Amino acid sequence: MATEELIAGNQAAFTSLMTTELNALASGNAISGATTITNGTANDLFGEFSWTSASSITATGTPFVALYLYPLNGDGSTYGDGRYSGAAGPGPPPSNYYRGFCGHPASASVQVGYFAIPGTSNFMIPLPRGTFRPVFYNLLGVALAATGNILYWRSTNLSIV
Question: How many degrees, rounded to 5, is the angle at CA 109 between CA 11 and CA 34?
Answer without folding.
Answer: 35
